[in-house]
Design a protein that fits this description.
With 220 residues, the protein is an alpha/beta fold. A five-stranded parallel β-sheet has the order 2-6-1-7-8, with helices on both faces. Strands 3-4-5 form a three-stranded antiparallel β-sheet. Strand 3 and strand 4 form a beta hairpin. Helix 7 crosses helix 8. The longest helix is centred in the middle third of the chain and has 17 residues. The two termini are 12 Å apart.
């Protein structure tokens, strides 16, 4: 199987760009961040503090997270409930950042991610795919962009969904998440040693997708 690992900070466009690249290449797309968001949503729904490692770890046995692909589009199910929209809310983003720092949560989702990659040609994105989850991936890419541009992209995305969150709030949250993701003890966000860095600052979405596809084809 051919696996492509894409890592990068929040708001870098990993999901949108990787999904388009996967469609072009005939691979499936796996958004691992959605798995952590689902765990975060479970905690929010059940009033569990997402920074409480013991509290979160104690409820993992009550959680079932599934990825189902409908016409090539990934849907995320939490205990049978399609939470594909709910996991994109700002509070779910911060909850995901918090629970992803908990070792028991990472272990809980690790086998699921590897099992998908073992059975499919896939593009998988996240924070530690090239460094931890798929260290032997054929292609490894670190996708990034300037914080202000990433925040603006996320702000526009939230506006389109009817959110009243301000740009300043999105930027502040993004900077906190960048710090948390890159400074956590377990699997911190960083480029794999053998990865290619792709910076999309100033690019249109179409330019970023084309750059990603060309980079993957060159490495393959």
């Amino acid at each position: 199987m051919i696996n492509v690992a894409i890592d990068g900070p929040a708001g870098a466009g990993k999901s949108t760009i990787a999904r388009a690249a996967a469609k072009e290449l005939g691979f499936i797309y796996v958004d691992t961040g959605a798995l952590y968001r689902a765990v975060g949503v479970y905690c929010l729904r059940n009033n569990i503090t997402t920074t409480d490692a013991d509290g979160v770890g104690a409820v993992l046995e009550n959680i079932t997270v599934e990825l189902k692909f409908v016409d090539g589009v990934q849907h995320v199910y939490l205990n049978g409930d399609d939470v594909s929209t709910e996991i994109r809310l700002p509070e779910a983003s911060m909850a995901a950042s918090n629970v992803s720092a908990i070792p028991s949560v990472r272990a809980f989702l690790f086998d699921l991610q590897r099992d998908i990659a073992a059975k499919n040609n896939c593009i998988m994105d996240g924070r530690d795919i090239g460094t931890v989850v798929l260290p032997n991936a054929k292609v490894k890419i670190f996708l990034t962009a300037d914080p202000e541009e990433r925040a603006m992209r996320r702000f526009i995305e939230l506006q389109e969904k009817g959110s009243t969150t301000t740009y300043e709030e999105v930027l502040a949250d993004l900077k906190v998440r960048d710090y948390n993701d890159s400074h956590r003890e377990i699997a911190p966000l960083k480029p794999a040693e053998d990865s290619v860095t792709v910076n999309t600052t100033g690019n249109t979405l179409e330019e970023s997708i084309k750059l990603m596809i060309n980079t993957i084809k060159e490495k393959m």
